[in-house]
Each structure stands twice: as structure tokens, then as C-alpha cells.
Fold this sequence. Notes:
Elements: H1 2-17, E1 25-28, H2 32-44, E2 49-52, H3 55-67, E3 80-84, H4 92-104, E4 112-117, H5 122-130, E5 135-138, H6 143-153
Parallel strand pairs: 1-2, 1-3, 3-4, 4-5
Amino acid sequence: PIxxxxxxxxxxxxxxxxxxxxxxxxxxxxxxxxxxxxxTILSSLDIKCESVYSGSDCIEKLLNRQKKTCGSLNCNQxxxxxxxxxxxxxxxxxxxxxxxxxxxxxxxxxxxxxxCTAHKGEEETExxxxxxxxxxxxxxxxxxxxxxxxxxxL
Length: 154
């Protein structure tokens, strides 16, 4: 009986020490092609990611992940989120604003927010950046671009 308890506690300890296998990056984009392109790039870099269709789906995903981890002591929120600017329900600016509000209230942890936009105009990009992004890139994204971003933010 004592050995069974000892074995069970060792098993619990080992499960908590294990490396987190949860996705490291969340992609928020309503365009399947853009999502697939970014997922392919991240996969080629051996980075596990997840994607959602809208800003409201993103907020829901963040709140759920904050509450429910995989059980590893190393499990935490997505360190990086790629956010599209134009989406249904909540656009990129509204999504970033809501994430920042949740962070200020301690409901989600800090993360790097990277905007992805098809707008080439400086005014639109600056407006998106001003919402609280750490960085903003223009589509189409490339593997070199993503590698450079991840070097800076991870």
C-alpha cells in the first residue's frame, strides 16, 4: 500500500514535469488560404499552432486556455498570436483591444501580438499597430519574415 502511494505520487510529479505539448502559436484569420500558409510555415519550423476564424473565437480560446492547461507545469498561454486585420464579428483592432483589456484585468497572461494585414497603406498599418500590437506585417507572409519575427518575440 505504501509503495502504491509512493508510485502514484511519483507518477503525478512526472506528469507535471513533462514538457508542454500545447500549441505555441494561435492564428486568428478568416481566410483559409492565409491560415493554411501560416500553418505550413510554422510546421516547417517545427512549431505547433492552432487557428480560429474570428476575433471572438480568439477571445474564447484565450480564456479557455487560461483556465484549462494540459497539466504540465510548463503549460501557459500562447506566447504569440498572429491576428488578421479584417475579420467578421470582431476585426483585428477590436480583438487586440479586447486582449489588452483582459490582460490589464489579469484574465489572460501577456503574449506577443503580431498583426497581419493585406493593407499596404501606412495609415491603416499604423492604426492597427496603435491598437497594441507588438509588430505588424503585410501579407503575403514568407518563411524568412516569420523566422525574423519569431527570433524577436520568442
